[in-house]
């Protein structure tokens, strides 16, 4: 760690704190994640999900883990530093993104996701805060603290992802979900890139399902039998809603964009396209160069595990902030980001046309403002 100078603290969470650092050799800025628990062997370190996944993932659209350092029984992850995330990029906009810009961002997100899935992992926490960027030109997937191997055996924990981007099967407490939950989240993010407003800003898990029903309509039992089994196990009944065309809600999106979003936002996870299939949609078959600009492409070096003998440098004292009461929607805030000015709550929701429904959607309550660390913050959604 004596090869880095600590500049400031960027975030603090349950499991770790994030610092901005600078390489003493190259002057390069880095984000250093310092784990709070102690690690007494390299085997312990290498068994962490984040290490197991990131050390295998070397892609232009996946955040780069530069090295892992264990020093005096403390574990440090050294990441490339990126100045902002997709949530901040959207929050600071005063006009809509051109579709060509959205297309390029979506191409990079799906390229990174296809790479992750191909190598046997699914992310489980795709959201704008976990998509790091250098302007709209370069987007990288970050925060693999919840990542799972596709070959790992269910049941999985019922908590995954921030509520607004949580797939229906997870909201209904399925324990055998897989990579299609990432595709659902990406579909929600794509809609938000067009409108700069969350598509399904539910105030609780039940309200989230109502919000989805308001847009997609009530799922047919013949289309998603498993969903009805899950709902029945929870004593939950889907509200009766007629679907609203996404084109009505997102008029600035092309027909090709609407088709891609509609397919990714399918109630039935088995009917959603894979990331690789999504990249072959007509939406991307245009006369446009897609992907990061050449100046952002560099040869990615393998992750270097380092076990220095030098004593640990003096670091600023990092005191953990008191956590709110236990909630499944609260998770680790451990990724390098400056504090945003506002919570990820839309000032104004997408206006839905009047819908005929037999059950009334619960009135949305104003959520409490929560501190939000832009890159690895799990609290971008209001708590239930």
TrEMBL record:
Domain Protein kinase stretches: 4-284
SUPFAM superfamilies linked to this entry: Protein kinase-like (PK-like)
GO molecular function ontology, one term from the record: protein serine/threonine kinase activity
Listed Low complexity bias regions: 354-369
Keywords (A to Z) from UniProt: ATP-binding, Cell projection, Cytoplasm, Cytoskeleton, Kinase, Magnesium, Metal-binding, Nucleotide-binding, Nucleus, Phosphoprotein, Serine/threonine-protein kinase, Transferase
Gene that encodes it: Mak
Sequence positions that bind ATP: 33
Gene Ontology annotations for the cellular component aspect, listed alphabetically: cilium; cytoskeleton; nucleus
Catalysed reaction, written as an equation: L-seryl-[protein] + ATP = O-phospho-L-seryl-[protein] + ADP + H(+); L-threonyl-[protein] + ATP = O-phospho-L-threonyl-[protein] + ADP + H(+)
Listed name of the protein: non-specific serine/threonine protein kinase
């Amino acid at each position: 760690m004596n090869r880095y100078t600590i500049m400031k603290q960027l975030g603090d969470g349950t499991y770790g704190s994030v610092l901005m650092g600078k390489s003493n050799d190259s002057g390069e800025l880095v984000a250093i994640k310092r784990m709070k628990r102690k690690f007494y062997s390299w085997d312990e370190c290498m068994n962490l999900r984040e290490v197991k996944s990131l050390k295998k993932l070397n892609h232009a659209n996946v955040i780069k883990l530069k090295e892992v350092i264990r020093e005096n029984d403390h574990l440090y992850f050294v990441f490339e530093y990126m100045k902002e995330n997709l949530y901040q990029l959207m929050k600071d906009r005063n006009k809509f993104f051109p579709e060509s810009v959205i297309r390029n961002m979506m191409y990079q997100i799906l390229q990174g996701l296809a790479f992750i899935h191909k190598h046997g992992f699914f992310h489980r926490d795709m959201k704008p805060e976990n998509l790091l960027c250098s302007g709209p030109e370069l987007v990288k997937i970050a925060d693999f603290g919840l990542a799972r191997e596709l070959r790992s055996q269910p049941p999985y924990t019922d908590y995954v992802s921030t509520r607004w981007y949580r797939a229906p099967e997870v909201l209904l407490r399925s324990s055998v979900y897989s990579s299609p939950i990432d595709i659902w989240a990406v579909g929600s993010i794509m809609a938000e890139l067009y409108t700069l407003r969350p598509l399904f800003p539910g105030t609780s898990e039940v309200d989230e399902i109502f919000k989805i029903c308001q847009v997609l309509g009530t799922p047919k039992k013949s289309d998603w039998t498993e969903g009805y089994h899950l709902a029945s196990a929870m004593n939950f009944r889907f509200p009766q809603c007629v679907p609203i065309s996404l084109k009505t809600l997102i008029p600035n999106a092309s027909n090709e964009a609407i088709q891609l979003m509609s397919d990714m936002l399918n109630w039935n996870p088995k009917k959603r396209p894979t990331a690789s299939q999504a990249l072959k949609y007509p939406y991307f078959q245009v006369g446009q160069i897609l992907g990061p600009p050449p100046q952002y492409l560099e040869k990615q070096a393998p992750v270097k595990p380092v076990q220095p003998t030098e004593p640990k440098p003096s670091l600023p004292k990092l005191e953990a902030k008191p956590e709110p009461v236990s909630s499944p929607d609260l998770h680790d805030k451990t990724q390098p980001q400056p504090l945003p000015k506002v919570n990820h709550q839309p000032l104004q929701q997408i206006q839905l046309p009047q819908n005929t429904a037999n059950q009334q959607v619960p009135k949305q309550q104003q959520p409490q403002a929560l501190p939000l660390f832009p890159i690895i913050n799990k609290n971008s959604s209001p708590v239930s």
